[in-house]
Design brief:
two-stranded parallel ribbon; 32% helix
Length: 112
């Protein structure tokens, strides 16, 4: 097992002090390392974190940007600002029995 995996597993243990968390971290990291090794062993290409450059380049991206396909171990948000889209909740006030005069916020033009 690589030193980097050991460091991350130790960090998981230090944060949680749970054997289950330490074991899960070790399992997940080993799985990713095995996937990387398998993808890296395919000949005729260069494996990189991200593909940057011309399409004809032999570089293959390991990490994937989020999209419409299901996420896997290598799907990574490309910005710290990427978040789930807002959820528009509708409040059903007919079930509220307290005395507050609850009123929904008026919709703005972009919400209509």
């Amino acid at each position: 097992m690589s030193v980097r995996i050991d460091v991350l597993v130790k960090r998981a243990w230090n944060v949680s002090e749970l054997a289950s968390t330490k074991s899960l971290a070790e399992q997940e990291l080993k799985e990713r390392a095995d996937e990387w090794a398998k993808k890296a062993s395919i000949g005729g290409r260069i494996l990189a974190y991200e593909k940057r450059g011309p399409e004809k380049d032999k570089t293959v991206s390991l990490i994937e940007s989020p999209g419409i396909k299901p996420w896997d171990n290598w799907t990574v948000p490309m910005s710290m600002r990427e978040v789930e889209p807002g959820v528009r909740l509708i409040m059903n006030t007919s079930h509220i029995t307290d005395d507050h005069a609850w009123k929904p916020r008026p919709a703005t033009k972009d919400e209509e």
